[in-house]
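Why run this: before we spend reagent on co-expression, it is cheaper to look at a predicted model of the complex and decide which construct boundaries make sense. The entries below are exactly what would go into the expression plan.
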Amino acid sequence: MAATILSGPTSRPVLRRLVRFAVSLVVLVLASFAMIHLIPGDPVRASLGPAAPIELVEARTAALGLDQPILTQLTTYVSGLLSGDMGTSFLTGEPVSEVIAARLPNTLALALLATVIALLAAIPLGMWAAVRTENGRHRGTEAAFGTATGTVVAVPEFLYAIALVTVFAITLRAFPPAGKDGLESYVLPVLALAIGPIGMIARIARVETLRVLGTDYVRLARAKRLPAGRLYLRHVLPNTLTATLTLGGLLLSSLIAGSVLVEYVFAWPGLGLKIVEAITQKDYPVAQGVILVYGAIVLLVNLLVDVVLSLSDPTSAIKES
Amino acid sequence: MLRTPSAIAGTVLVGLMVVLAVIGPPIWGDQADLIDAGAILQGSSAAHPLGTDNLGRDLLARVLVAGRFSLLLALAAALIGAVAGVVLGALPSVLPTRLARLVTGAVNALVAFPGLLLAMFTAVVAGLGARGAVLGIGVAIAPGFARLTQTLAASVAGADYVSAARMLGVPRRRILVRHVLPNIAEPLILNLTQALGGALLGLAGMSFLGLGVQPPSYDWGRLLFDGFGRIYVTPVVAIGPAVAVALAGIGFNLLGDTLARRAARTTVPGKKATTSVAADTDKPDEGAVLEVKDLTVTFPGGVTPVRQLSLSVRPGEIVGVVGESGSGKSLTAAAIGGLVPYPGTVGYGRLRLCGKDVTELSRKELGTSLAMVFQDPMASLNPALKVGGQLAEVAVVHQGATRAEARGRAVDRLGHVHLPEPDKQAKKHPHELSGGMRQRAVIAMGLMGTPRLIIADEPTTALDVTVQRQILRLLREVTEETGSAALFISHDIAVVGELCDRVVVMYAGRVVEELPVDRLATGAAHPYTRALITSLPDMDTDRTLPLASIPGRQPGPAEVGDGCAFAPRCALATDRCSTERPLLSVYGDAHQVACWEAK
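The model came back. Tokens follow.
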């Protein structure tokens, strides 16, 4: 498979994206390494507090290798990463990689579900709005759609989360207010994450649909008197998907790191809750590891979106050249 | 600017926020800090509508007071982000090439990163508290601004004044500061409104997580943090700060949207025009494939690009419709195909296809008996679907063919239009075919049904001359083989003369002459038709003289007066021509003309 990709007509853009991904990954590793060293003063002292005895601080510093020359520290860090070692938590002594491995699936599940639900709700909504408001008809619908999506997008996800908890968990007691316990515990966090993106993607889907509706090939398809369902599903939808799915991919990567606030509201045992704990308690190795993993996932998802697009979109070969 | 409800709402909300920031602390400041040991952790009451905090301070007053601090922090973060972003974005235009590329690459990489991640990274380094949060949100905003600056700077870099300055040897830094930045300042400032909204929400989020503002200071996010801890017992304490953050977010977003769209706003026509249907008096022509009588296309505002147009096409006949751009010929074709874009309205005395009124025709009949070919073959094929699939569709939808049958027929029709290796072409996407091949494929698509009429709207205009010939020959061949008639729309009277049996000449939305093609060269009666023919260069044209042209221009659809529309440009025009419009009247055998001077 890889060989056919690299030898096909799309090989060059794909290769270029792979190179870009590799460079970004290296920069990300350097940045996460630098993070601990950029902290003003002594991070170990800051983390243990002013009351900690000097011996403890020195022992911890030595254990972390922070007394070594900086280049030695970098090579140790990188070779550690390559063998899956991301250090140990200041607070619990657990290996950071184990903490992340235990929590990452929970975060991914939230983000993935929210993305799928947002796309499934937003694309039909945007297409419907486009067809209804095409050529300036139904100005009322257009204004209502614009205001509604603008409002939905503008409210941050943690407010949706708080509102959902208050109404459905505390008042109605229909769903659990916090924690991960069975399928029903997914409902509120996923909803809180999906509401804003539904507004955003519906807008894009509408604009894209309007663009496609104005093309000659849709005029021709209308001249063929295709039934409405076939016209919209076969001729319009595929041509709007490039933009909409790109957005879906970017949405997924932004939700993985963006679910922090929602995880916090629902005490969801994911990476987001962990990084908030780590930052407030100055558990730097954990914070460093989580940020590195978040960054790597974002890079990876963006790379996948790019590659899938360049392989699936028949016209992207032209755009590239 | 204040025409839409969302713009009004955005302006009002942002205005309220600003007023609150100014008057909040002086009015409610004392009440917000008043510690009341007798009223700690209360819920809603008459004295404290939103309850009290753990020191008995009134939460409503604290929400109202916190507005100023929240807005100021957001402003600081947005400014940090904007300044850093503009510097990052402008740097590449003064740095040496390699460094410039590095900065551009870094910005592109950062834009892809979620803002919250950058903010948390910065917050870890800068430490917990308002300072770290503001810095973090500023860092999160910067890449977007840098990208915007780069895009805008690139768009003015090619402007004449910038090139001129460069040629005069003005240093690059000076060009940037004096020529580029002032010209992109406005969109950058407009973007700041949205950035401000983003910063406000970002900071609220950081404080809500406990990573932002720390006590004894408080912003809305911090109040929400405190309130959230008590949400199970007294949910009301979370309402105040939550509503404040939501309203601020909505206000800045709606206003920012409006500002960003301000420049791009275009005027739109207001009301629908009424349709006037002329009385249908005489008998319809049962033998004609297409019969149009008194066709009128109207757009709102009284613009009428097609006026009382009548024409008919008999089976197997190729009728050319010729005229300048704006004569209404393409709209005529669209009206016949039922494809006039909204808000245009079509009125007619009679519009019959294949012996039936168009309103009586089923979708299936329309889809199979009428074929359309448009000007740009790239644009008329769906780029996401394979050529064969797009062809096969008509057979599947309207003729109940199975997929395999439809595919077979599609390949057969592609062979019919002389596409080499039709089975291979059917599996390709449109962009893999050349322009001429695409136009053949579109014609083949029309042949999938049993077309009685092919409407071809400038089918060869986008193609080069040799391919034009092939397509014209193909159209001729197709009509001869299938017995289909064709309506051929073109601005090129030479092409029309070659291909068609009969020619309809349009001017300013009306038919001015209709004649058999063999009379075109010598027998044309209307001064406009004659002028079109004399303006054609041929082998005998004296090339030392300028090409003949018709002086003046065609009146627009809204400018047509009472008389003959061509009168202002006509050498033969009399007083009568400019006051009274000549009707189309019989001039010879199958020849009609609308001119007072044609005798």
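Chain B touches chain A through 75 residues (CB under 8 Å). Chain B has two domains: 5-262, 274-385+449-507. Bring this page to Monday's planning discussion.
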